[in-house]
Amino acid sequence: MDIRQCKRCGKVFQFSGSTLCPKCVREVDKQFDDVRNFLYDNPHSTLETVVEETKVNAQDIKRWLKEGRLILTGDSTAMIQCESCGKPILTGKLCETCAVQAKCGILSLGLLKKESRPERKSTELQGVLKKKCMLRYVNLNNA
Ligand SMILES: [Zn+2]
Ligand SMILES: [Zn+2]
């Protein structure tokens, strides 16, 4: 028998795939529903209002947004920030610009290593790569 300690309330429980005990799983599910329902009725609420009205921890709400579990509609108030530049975003961990840069960064590193011609400045090359990445990213998004 696999016994774990609940990450939320600290009680020990029989492990069944979740890091929370069954009671906490139910409570968190209910909290999630409360937040989702509240946002459904009040889509322009700020994080402070949601916390005040639903009594749900701000950290939990932010986590759901980052995990993409809780999704805000296009004209909602942003409640989380890009982990790279701090710009307000609706969902995920990075804003669109930083997501492209993160992708391009990985691509450029590989390509820069292959590029051996010394006459070609690395900044110039990065510009070229960025354009290529941007196109690739846009194409992926439209696909
Ligand atoms: Zn618990
Ligand atoms: Zn960003």
Show the helix and strand layout.
Layout: E1 3-5, E2 12-14, H1 22-41, H2 47-54, H3 58-67, E3 80-81, E4 88-89, H4 96-114, H5 122-142
Antiparallel strand pairs: 1-2, 3-4
The structure holds zinc ion (ZN) (2 copies).
Overall description:
The protein is mainly alpha-helical and 143 residues long. It is built from 5 helices and 4 strands. It has helices at residues 22-41, 47-54, 58-67, 96-114, 122-142; strands at 3-5, 12-14, 80-81, 88-89. It has a two-stranded antiparallel ribbon. Helix 1 (22-41) crosses helix 2 (47-54) and helix 4 packs across helix 5. The protein is flat. The protein binds zinc ion (ZN) (2 copies). One zinc ion (ZN) is lined by residues 6, 8-9, 11, 20-21, 23-24.
Give helix % range.
40-55%
Task: Work out the count of structural domains.
Answer: 2
Shape annotation? flat
Strand content: 5-15%
Radius of gyration: 21 Å
**Major beta-sheet overview:** 2 strands, antiparallel
Terminal residue distance? 47 Å
What is the N-to-C order of secondary-structure elements (H for helix, E for strand)? EEHHHEEHH
Quickly count the helices. Answer: 5
Low-confidence stretches: 137-143
Counting DSSP E segments of at least 2 residues, the number of strands comes to 4
Bound molecules: zinc ion
Average pLDDT over all residues: 82
